[in-house]
Amino acid sequence: MYSQRMLYIAYQYTKDSFHAEDVVQEAFLKAYKKIDSVDDTGKIGAWLSAITARTAIDFLRLEKRKGCILLDSTVLEPMAGHAVNGENIEEEVCVRLFQEEVDRTVENLSVESQQVLILKIQYGLKEAEIANILNLKSGTVKTRLYRARKQLKRCLTRTG
Q: What is the pTM of this model?
């Protein structure tokens, strides 16, 4: 009943149908183990969506630690265009180094801050979509985003 919704959420994170299927399978296993903790059966869809989103985030972190980078056309096309000019390559390296610094800094933030930042910035989701995935109110998501950005900025200005 919920598998297509979960597959869609997982694919939004992984950008790969095979990885998305793995994430959904793992999410179903986690849900099965904790099914007795659900009080309101009317919210199972939202509960499964949150588990799927968190499982996908965990999967991406694991892939990142392994050194695997998931590349899609939005990453490959700009790289192909920059290969012509040496100045663009230097600029690309600077951007990538800064992105790595941001990623390291985000890893030091709270889990709540990480979740909303990753969903908003990396995956381009709207506050309402993030609220739905994380089973939160839209106002809570906006507050967490504000605080996470403020904390990230503070950390980056200290190191930079």
A: 0.45
